[in-house]
Every structure is written in structure tokens, then in C-alpha cells.
Amino acid sequence: MRDSKTVTLAHGSGGTLMHELIEETVLRRIGNPVLNDLDDSAVVDGLAGHGLEGGRIALTTDSFVVQPLFFPGGDIGKLAVCGTVNDLAMKGARPAYLTLGMIAEEGLPLRDLERALESLAGAAESAGVAVAAGDTKVVERGAVGGLMLNTAGVGFVPESRDLRADRIQDGDEVVVSGTIGDHETAILLAREDFKVSETIESDCAPLNSLVETVIAACPEVRAMRDPTRGGLATTLCELASRAGRRITIDERSVPVAEGVASVCDILGFDPLYMANEGKAVIVVPSGGGEGVVDALRRHELGGSAAVIGTVDSGDGVYMRTAVGGLRPIVMLEGVQLPRIC
Amino acid sequence: MIDQRRFSSEPEARSLVDRIHELVDGPVSLMEVCGTHTVAISRFGLRHLMPSELKLLSGPGCPVCVTPQSDIDRAIALARAPGVVVTTFGDMMRVPGSSSSLERERAEGADVRIVYSPLEAIDVASAEPDKEVVFLGVGFETTSPTVAATVLAAADEGATNLTVLPMFKLVPPALHMLAELPGRALDGFICPGHVSTIIGTDAYAPIVERHNMPCVVVGFEPLDILAGVVMLLEQVRAVRAGGVARVENEYGRAVSGRGNRRAQEVLSRVFDVDDSEWREIGSIEQSGYRFSDEFENYDARARLDVEVEEAVEPTGCICGEIMLGTKLPTDCPLFATRCVPRDPVGPCMVSSEGACAAFYKYERRKT
After folding, report:
1. B34-173+260-359: CATH topology
2. Predicted-complex ipTM score
3. Are residues A295 and A181 in the same domain?
4. pTM of the entire structure?
5. Contacts for B191 with CB less than 8 Å, ≥ 6 apart
6. Which residues of A touch B87 (CB under 8 A)?
7. CB atoms B35 and A339 under 8 Å
8. Which residues in B lie closer than 8 A to residue A21 (C-beta atoms)?
9. For B198-234, what is each residue's pLDDT tens digit?
10. Can you tell me the distance from the alpha carbon of B212 to that of B235, in angstroms, rounded to the nearest whole number?
């Protein structure tokens, strides 16, 4: 059963299978020094030499296949802006332009397309970016769940900024900008009819202004990543692996909204593995965590920011549990499935 | 509204752990028989707070793990049959059958749908009147009443294209079997909290009486488990000094003596108790369900005739010994090498409540 000959849903869940697919199927064929970094966005030099002044730009792309198209706290349009803006912002880039590829399905109500685009426009304005180019395709009924979007983004990276996980050192502190698991929990409730009375809202939001706040408070910030598919746990594993170090977090410090905690508890999901779309994991030098948290808490998107852990030598990610136990945190394997009993 | 954080307080945990250390002065083995306990114990890192002579063993409490390979193969055969929609809890998707899995079949075009509640299967059946909708009935006493209720609802609504593949298991017969294993290796049972909300603490009286085996019904928060272990250890000390074991209830906020009478009635209307095959363990008397005569039309085994391939058990898998508590996942030569969650050999690694998966995820530490 080892060699899967078809793509399965687990290949898209953000965990080990997806990483394998990327390494073995994708990189092997189209890998190059820029792509192989596999960071949130690619920072490229070398505008100089093309007859242009020097400087670095950041490039990234993301596709949006969320179901349902509209959910509490956002929709596919807003997500299409925020996902790409955030990937640029995590490298310290100032997002400037997006491209927008739309694949709409025959039968999609025009009103839904209008709503999604209105939302996209609002998010773009909020983030200070413009859609510079686009493409529209229509496919037959049933092919894309109504609508799928792709955005590619370009941002400009100020000279002084160098955000990379391999700059992380022993003694560094790990900060998270707010509560975890909100987006994916919201989507889960919106997609299935669990008859839960609570409404959980996605935390979908553009993070570029929050990133500027962090950099102003702590210019020596080492690295940032936004915990999307695979959740905080997977992001911490990626950071630890790239840094070649151990990250240890404290369960009691990790902010989880009460509604999210309850819903996950009932269904058997772990918030640590549930995606966000408006939060950042930030690694700063020793002693810098508190200052960054103070600055974040004064920002409208950072109200629940907290220092959650530290970096030291070794490997892997570990968590000190609420009752004083210690357990490893591993990357998501496959997809999370709700429990039976 | 109960504030769940009360059940994770560190100072209280510390004092319970200290008491556990006081009470252990020789080898003690306690076994839980509930997948949720398996995960909770590992997830909260509790084993590492315990004295080394106290073994917390994981028994056959993972419903997917104890489903025989032939039943998995039957579910796969149903998925392959034209005109059949298989509805299932998510955890069954990736369990390896003899040559495939439901997830693999779905990727190749079979109509297999994950549902969160068995009642959704009725919705599917109504929406697809030309199809035969089968619900895979896996689970212990926490789950089987909801499926029984679903069958009653289906009968009320006249949904005739819905059947259930009954693969349920009962906990108390398994406890008898475990208590009778040669060499009396077990000193007490951490009894399953959610199952007990249905069957009541009274259900464990025969186990205590026949085997003088301490039984404590335990909840799932960290303090519940630590408190339950303290209660068991106090009983073990008394029993070793010649005393009599008892049923005790740590999970009083959810579990009563008599259990859920309505659920018990619904179960006995729809199902009859029957002998049942437990994967890698063998047949246990009166430990499963078949449909009662009144509801035999809902039995997928009888209604849907499919050819099931001959079961080929995976070689090298010691899930059976692990589920009986005689071996740990780390004793298995395949553990974390050939057998990993995304490419599992046996069910204990693929099920989120399996002992091997819990060990893989939470118990491998390099300190």
C-alpha cells in the first residue's frame, strides 16, 4: 500500500504528505535555489544588472479553494487578498501589487461573484495593495465548487530587513500574535451542520500593518510565519527544522478562544493543528518578547498576543502541558479526522 | 457552565502526582479501555509524571482498532459496489484492509462520505433514493445508541434504502476477558467515562465481584485521570492486603449508577447481543450486536450481498498483543520505521485513538 498512485486529500492538508509531494514531485522537477527555500514568499535580488536600480522584491502565489465561499468573518475574496499579502508580510516585505486569476463555474450566481469581488476590493484597500493584472476563466458546472481564485503578490523589501528562520538562535523567544485555530474552526462549522449554537468567526485579516508594528518594536526580529494549513504546530515544526534548533512552548501560554476550544474539544480536534488566516508566529531575540507583545496588544489585530515559548539547542518541538507533563509536537500527518466517541 | 480549566490546575495536579508516588511501592499495572483515555494520557504527558513501577497500559478501547480485518474488507467491497453510498465516521477512512482502504477507494471514485453523526446517513438516503446507503456501525456503547436511534428514525421516516453494517463492541465482556488473561498482570481498570454515561457504574459490579478487580470510572481531563489513578492505587493497596475491590466513580459529574436508561432501551429494541470477533484478539462472548428481528431489514450484512476478499492480515503487526497490554507500541519492530501514521501496517497506528498512533505522536521524546 506504500506507493500511492493518485493524489489524495491528505496531500493538500499542510502536513508531512504535502511536504513530501512538494519535495519529491515538485522540487525534483522545477526546483531552483530561489524556490527551494520554500518560505512564505521568495525574496529576490538582482534587479540591478537589468538596467534597474538595486533592491529586493518579494514574490509569492496562493490559490484559494475554500468551501463554503462565504463564512463568518470572511469569504474567498477577502481570503485571496489576505493569504497573499500575509505571505509577503512575513518576509518583511511591503505588499504592493497582486494579480488575480479567477476560475468561475457555470451556474455560479453573478451576485455571489460580485460579493466576493467587493470583499476582495475592500481587503485590498485595507491592505494598501492594488490588483495589477488578472485573468478570468469559466469551467463547466461542478468543477470548482463555484469559484476558485489565485493571487500572486509582489512586495518591496526594505534594505535593513532580513527575516529568515535560519537566523534563529538559542535563547530566542517565540511570540504568537493572537488566538489560534480560529479560521479552520470557523470553516468547519460553516461547512458542516453541527447544530452548534456558537458562531465562530474566521480571523482572516491582512497582517502587513501588524508586521510593521513588530519590526518597529523589535528591528532585530529573526523570522515570522503565519500558521495556515497544519496550524501552529506545523509552523513551529517548520521553524525548528529550518533553524536546526528545539522550540519548547508552554501549553498555558498558548492563546485559544473559549469558543474554539469548546468546539474542538467536542469534535476531537486539536486547536494546535487548526489553521489561522490572520495571525503570525514571531521569533525574537532573548528578552525581546515582552516588548513585542506590548506593541502587538496595542494593535487592533494583536489583542491576545503572548510569548509562548523559547528556542534552544536540540531539535524538534515540545510542549509543557498544563499539568506539568512534557510531550513532543509533531507535524500533522494526513488530515485531522473527528473522533468517533 | 463548568470551567474546564479547573481540571488542569497545576498545583492540584502536583499534589495528586505526589500522592501517586506515595502509593506506589512495587510494580502496578492499570489499564484503560478507551481510545479517548489513550490519547488523553499521552497528550497531557502524564506517563512521564508517574513513578517507573506504575504502568499505564492501553487496552482494546479503540473502536476502529478492534474491528476485524474482514469487516474492513466488507466495507471496502460495499464501497466498490455500484449504486452504493458508504457513510462512515472519519476514522475508518484510512484503516488498511487486505488490499485497499476506504480513502484509497474514494480517491479512485467510490462514493464514500464522512459523516459526523449517523443521522446524516438518513439525509443522504433521502437525497439519493436510487442508491443503497450503508452506514458503518463502529463504536462502543457511547456510539451504538445513536446508531440505534438513527435506525428508529429511519423506520419512522420510511427510509428503506438505508442499512447499517453492525460492527459494535461492548466493553464489560472485554474487561472480563482481560481480567482472565493468564498470569493476572492487571491490578485495576480505568473504566471509560463516556461509555459509562450510557451503561452506568453498575455495569462494572460483575467484574469486581468475579475477579476482585478494582474498577474506577474516570473522566478525561488531566485532574480526572490523576484522581482516578489515586483512587485505583488506594484500592490496589487494600486488595493486596486482603481486602475487597469496589466500583468507584471519579466522573460523578457525568456518570450515574444506572446510566442512561433511554439509551439502553433504544439499544435493546434495535439490537440483540451476540458473540463478536475482536481484531487480533479473537471471539469474545456476547460482546457485540446483531439486529433484532424487528429491524433485520436494516442489516447491511443480510441486505447487501457483496463478495469479500479473503482477509490477509498484515505480517509483523502486533496490534493484538498491544491491545491486550502485553506489549507496548515501542516493542513492535515495525513501530515508527515501517509503520507510521500515513503508511500504517495495522489499525492501532492509523486510528487517532490507537495506542501506536498516540505513542508515535506524543510519547517519542529525545531528552
Report:
1. Rossmann fold (3.40.50)
2. 0.73
3. yes
4. 0.83
5. B33, B34, B171, B175, B201, B204, B215, B216, B217, B218
6. none
7. yes
8. none
9. 999 999 999 999 999 999 999 999 999 999 999 999 9
10. 10
